[in-house]
Amino acid sequence: MPQEREPSDGGFRARRRGQGELEAQVLEVLREAPGPATAGWVQQRLDGGLAYTTVVTILSRLHAKKAVSRTRSGRSYHWQAAADAAGLAALKMRRVLDSEADRDAVLASFVSALLPHDEVLLRALLDSASDGAVQPAGGDPERDGPAHREG
């Protein structure tokens, strides 16, 4: 695990992960699994020597967010990714939107803060959704944008 200098005592401590970083790492491990995996299997493949209980807690939180599914197997569970990192981010965005009283204001503020490239992509995705054919994430907004699809 990367180390950084502790300013207060001059020692070293383990780098703290950013918010959601550990969840994304667990999702990545599950996506690489050949099938449903146990928490122990996930723990062995994560960097940083996390405790088994920490891995189970993360998996349980991801399950509550509908980012993973689980199947009972004896006294434990087998876990499987139900969403990738982009899907997890979308779930978070939806949860924030659902928690606000004025959805219109939140959406208006979000859209007004988009970068031009993101606005073009969002317009193309909304157009595709209204046509019944949403483009997968990572599409080319210049090629797939509304002006290029009409011709």
Describe the structure.
Residues 1-6 and 135-151 have low confidence and may be disordered. Helix content is 54%, strand content 12%. The radius of gyration is 20 Å and the shape is elongated. It has 151 residues and is mainly α. Helix 1 packs across helix 3 (52-64) and helix 2 crosses helix 3. It folds into two domains: 10-101, Winged helix-like DNA-binding domain superfamily/Winged helix DNA-binding domain (Arc Repressor Mutant, subunit A); 118-147, no CATH class.
How would you describe this structure in keywords?
single chain, 54% helix, 151 residues, Arc Repressor Mutant, subunit A, 8 helices, two-stranded antiparallel sheet, mainly alpha, 2 domains, disordered C terminus, 12% strand
Present the secondary structure layout:
Blueprint: E1 3-5, E2 12-14, H1 21-32, H2 39-45, H3 52-64, E3 68-73, E4 76-81, H4 85-99, H5 103-112, H6 116-131, H7 141-144, H8 146-150
Antiparallel strand pairs: 1-2, 3-4
Helix pairs in contact: 1-3, 2-3
What distance separates the N and C termini?
A: 52 Å
CATH class of the largest domain: Mainly Alpha
> Largest sheet, described in full?
2 strands, antiparallel
The CATH architecture designation of the largest domain is: Orthogonal Bundle
Overall mean pLDDT score?
Answer: 80
